[in-house]
């Protein structure tokens, strides 16, 4: 093995090596940026999809959630005799708070109430927007949502299709379009598909 071999390269060869190294670095950087952008778009799409599904779920369970607030019982003392409450607490080895509240249920009722108040307001905004729209399909979309999810007595897709003189596929398309707009209303800027 030889000691310290030296290589000499010309200025021109050095510049070509540096150019190639710079090209590779730029290419790797651009690839990394593209991957990050792709990942970011994918994450944004996933967030929108989640919010869209939540909007659909809120509509599908609208009647249940609306009744939940008024029918939920979270005060033991309202439902049971005071002596029975004391016996239950002794058996479970704990004491509830002085009001006899079950706090986890109370928190659920309060959260549901806040969410449903917000949803109700956004549905009202959507209704006003649809009813004042010059486009008949926007007006119909409100009637579709109202009939399927909001009225006390739900209508079937077939009933709505017959009433609106459209096919059932159009009803589903209307639901999808309405849910997109409602997602933006309910979740604000985070509810827009990017």
Molecular structure report:
By secondary structure, the protein is mainly alpha-helical. It is built from eight helices and no strands. The longest helix has 50 residues, at 11-60. The model has no long low-confidence stretch (mean pLDDT 82).
| Low-pLDDT ranges | none
Distance between the termini: 62 Å
How many separate helices? Answer: 8
Proportion of helical residues? over 70%
Q: What's the gyration radius in Å?
A: 31 Å
The helix-and-strand class reads: mainly alpha
Taken as a percent bin, the fraction of beta residues is: under 5%
Order of helices and strands: HHHHHHHH
Tell me the number of strands. Answer: 0
Chain-averaged pLDDT: 82
Shape: elongated
Biggest sheet record:
none
Summary tags:
194 residues, 8 helices, mainly alpha
């Amino acid at each position: 093995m030889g000691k310290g071999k030296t290589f000499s390269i010309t200025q021109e060869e050095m510049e070509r090596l540096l150019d190639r190294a710079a090209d590779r670095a730029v290419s790797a950087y651009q690839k990394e940026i593209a991957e990050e952008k792709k990942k970011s778009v994918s994450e944004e799409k996933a967030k929108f999809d989640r919010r869209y599904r939540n909007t659909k779920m809120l509509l599908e369970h609208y009647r249940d959630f609306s009744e939940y607030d008024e029918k939920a019982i979270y005060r033991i003392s309202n439902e049971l005799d005071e002596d029975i409450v004391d016996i239950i607490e002794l058996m479970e080895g704990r004491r509830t708070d002085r009001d006899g509240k079950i706090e986890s249920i109370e928190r659920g009722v309060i959260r549901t109430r806040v969410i449903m108040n917000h949803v109700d307001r956004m549905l009202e905004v959507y209704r006003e927007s649809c009813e004042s729209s010059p486009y008949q399909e926007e007006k119909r979309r409100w009637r579709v949502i109202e009939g399927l999810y909001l009225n006390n007595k739900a209508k079937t897709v077939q009933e709505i299709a017959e009433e609106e003189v459209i096919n059932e596929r159009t009803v589903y398309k209307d639901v999808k379009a309405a849910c997109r707009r409602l997602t933006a209303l309910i979740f604000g800027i985070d509810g827009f598909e990017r």
